[in-house]
Amino acid sequence: MTWKQNCANDCGHENIKYATSRAEPGRGYRLEYGTPKCGAAPAGALIVESVPDNIDTYNDECGPSGTDSGHFQFTFYPNSSSTGPGLGPYQAKGDLHQIGGGHGGHFWYTHTRDRAHLGGDSGLMTVKGTWTLDKNIEWARVLVHLPDTGAHTRQAAYVIGGSDSTSPHRIVEQRANRWVSLGAFHFTGTPSVTLTNATDDGTADEDVAWDAVAFQPLPGKPNNVVVAMGDSYASGEGASDPGGDDYYPESDYVGRVDGDKVRNDCHRSKYAWTRRAVLPGEALSTGELDDSWSARMDYHLIACSGARHYNILNTSQAGELPQIQQGYLDQNTTLVALSIGGNDMAFADIITKCVLAVTQKCQDASIDERNPDTGDETGTSTPALKDWAPAWAHDTVRPRLVKTLVALHKQAPYAKIVLMGYPRLLENSGQCVPGIGLAEGPWLNSMADTVAQEMKGAVDDANTQNQVNGVFADPREAFAGQAICGDPETIHGIVLRGRSRADKTAPKPSMKSFHPKVSGTLNYAKAFVGALAQ
Prior knowledge:
- This protein is an alpha/beta fold.
- The chain has helices at 7-10, 232-235, 273-276, 286-291, 309-313, 347-356, 385-411, 440-466, 518-533, and strands at residues 36-37, 46-48, 70-75, 97-99, 102-103, 107-113, 128-133, 139-145, 156-163, 169-172, 179-196, 203-210, 213-218, 224-230, 297-301, 335-339, 368-370, 377-381, 416-420, 470-473.
- A hairpin with a 6-residue loop joins strand 17 and strand 18 (377-381).
- Helix 7 packs parallel to helix 8.
């Protein structure tokens, strides 16, 4: 090594940012947000914090932790290969951190791990945290608070202890930055909630957080226990004008590095039709009851834009577990609202073909065929769509809808299951949509009629063969005159502007295209309530 010859130009020089004459830098925001929430719990709820009573969290906004209604305890698993005295080192403690944000100004976080990354049920890097209520209650809504940073996993696995639920496991998308309900439970033992960092997709690079838990006492079982499942028409895709501000943030998420690892484009809207419906016997909409934590309503929206039947049953989507595996169906569920089948029918591929076909009518064209149980392309093309689509609806989609309805009934045996159909998309033969020919628009609408017939048939099959308490809701009449090119137009045509965060990028049309607007979800709610009344 040699000395630099021209140090005045080539050598580095320190820059002291905080000299002795400057004040201390104060509270930092290294993790971008970390804003504390002070006293933001649901009214009347019993709170269990993540720290002992009367602990100074070193947070100027919220102050000491005060006295809560229970206690919190971590569980770690020792390295059994240690040769020293006692149980050996607890390696997972080295990856446990705390931030002065969240409810009351404190939460813990670590990283999600599967078995290959030393996680699993009792791996060396597995961390479990349990909130335990120090009093007995009968019925209660259980809520978890999610901070605005340090909580990224889409597969946070909570286990509710002490209840008689047939499904005590509940999966939560943790990017919510608010109180999130795990459901209403009947407790027969000591109420508790346990969260682990073990996830199916855990590769030690997504955060999972332990914040506060709330037990909201209820006078009894809620009048309605509703789970909304399915595809984009159930999630509320398109019901956010403009942009995506009306989507729940965890369902419209793009990280600094966009990719399947972080992206979530399920697009669950506050204006989804299940939230806008006023159920029989209620004075307020489901959404209004849910937002106010009403004792009359327990509601969960887990639908995801783009879902096919297998995304309900066994295949993850957008980083979220299959919908039926998220745990929100049990013996207390009274109503399942479901929209599924449109993507299984390849509606998006068919509409794209109709818009882009130049040399022939789209009903005479073909599309790439896909495996109906995986969505993978088979490498072959379909016959002419006018021949393929009706046969595919009857022979392939209908039995898979029956399979889905039976699986839902098995998890929620006392629930009414409402399978919602799809509207005719076009008015005036769709002539306001570029690329749709005079003969193509009526054919597309006729396919909506064919699919409605097969969906109703699937409900009838499930009811007859498996005693499923199913109902088919038909929205075609509610949308009559108000589809694309209608007046008023309550379904989006081709949308090129006003995109949400996790949306397709130009020149591709927005995911909102060919989905109900905010006004259109009211039409759906009308059809839904009408089906329940029948």
